Amino acid sequence: MPRSSLLSVVVSSLTDALTFWLPLSCAGCGALDDALCPGCRGALAGARVDRAIEPGLTVSCALEFSGVTARVIRALKEDGRTGLARDLAPALAAVLRSVTPPGGLVVTVPSSATAFRRRGYRPVDLLVRRAGWSPERALRLRRAPGDQRGLGRAARRRNVGGAFVARGVNGRAVVVVDDVVTTGATLAEAVRALRAAGAGPVWAVALAHTPLRIASRGESHGIFT
């Protein structure tokens, strides 16, 4: 078994063990004895929103990153609650079905090596698999960008400029997926790398988008781009 797969199994097993011994609470509202209560699960029903992130590039998003959705995504990404991917996946699957052409590649924005070592899994890959697609690792990091916290739109673009390189996409239609989009700098840079590698039409998808009033101030939630 590859080392990355083994690490994912270990993390999942430890999470299951902790869930057995520690009180379970809803990731959305904190109610006890349920990983996600029916009300919070209902709040994850998606409605596609298309948002322009730069001229000629639109990202299709499934959810708004606020309230219950934001808390559930943070629990998935930062608390190791990987089972929540099953609850988030239907909204993402609906958007992927609406934009992915027959034979198109679904490519995920890569996590940094540091983030993978810390978590033991790649949240975007996990979400895409739960949504019913096999994610292609056609993108890789050429260099690790700096921390995006506190950076405005222009600074974020400079920070991720040249960060990605793509391969294996020449002439292929590609859908590139990220978890949460704020200014769109990371997705825009991923699209540029895919096009530079000869990809055909490229679509951008995100599980969730931050409200425009937050993104416009250049604020950051710390773990999203």
Describe it for me?
- The protein has 225 residues and is α/β, with parallel strands linked by helices.
- It has a single domain (44-215), classed as 3-Layer(aba) Sandwich (Rossmann fold), CATH 3.40.50.
- 40% of the residues lie in helices and 18% in strands.
- The chain has nine helices and seven strands.
- The chain has helices at residues 3-21, 38-42, 67-78, 85-99, 113-119, 123-130, 153-160, 185-196, 212-215; strands at residues 49-54, 57-64, 105-108, 139-141, 164-166, 174-181, 202-209.
- The strands form two sheets. The protein has a five-stranded mixed beta sheet with strand order 1-2-7-6-3, sandwiched between helices.
- Strand 1 and strand 2 (57-64) form a beta hairpin.
- Helix 4 (85-99) crosses helix 6 (123-130).
- The longest helix has 19 residues, at 3-21.
- The protein is globular.
- Mean pLDDT is 83; it is low at 213-224.
- Belongs to the ComF/GntX family.
- This is Amidophosphoribosyltransferase.
- It comes from Microbacterium trichothecenolyticum (Aureobacterium trichothecenolyticum).
- It holds the Pfam family Pribosyltran.
- InterPro entries: ComF/GntX_DNA_util-trans, PRTase-like, PRTase_dom.
Largest sheet: 5 strands, mixed
CATH architecture field: 3-Layer(aba) Sandwich
Mean pLDDT value: 83
Counting H and I runs of at least 4 residues, what is the number of helices?
Answer: 9
Q: What value does the Rg take, in angstroms?
A: 17 Å
Low-pLDDT segments, ≥5 res: 213-224
SSE class? alpha/beta
Percent of residues in helices: 40-55%
Task: Supply the CATH class.
Answer: Alpha Beta
N- to C-terminal distance: 32 Å
DSSP strand content:
15-25%
How many separate structural domains? 1
Query: Secondary-structure element sequence?
Result: HHEEHHEHHEHEEHEH
Named CATH topology: Rossmann fold
Instruction: Based on Cα principal axes, name the global outline.
Output: globular
Protein name: Amidophosphoribosyltransferase
Family: Belongs to the ComF/GntX family.
Organism: Microbacterium trichothecenolyticum (Aureobacterium trichothecenolyticum)
InterPro entries: ComF/GntX_DNA_util-trans, PRTase-like, PRTase_dom
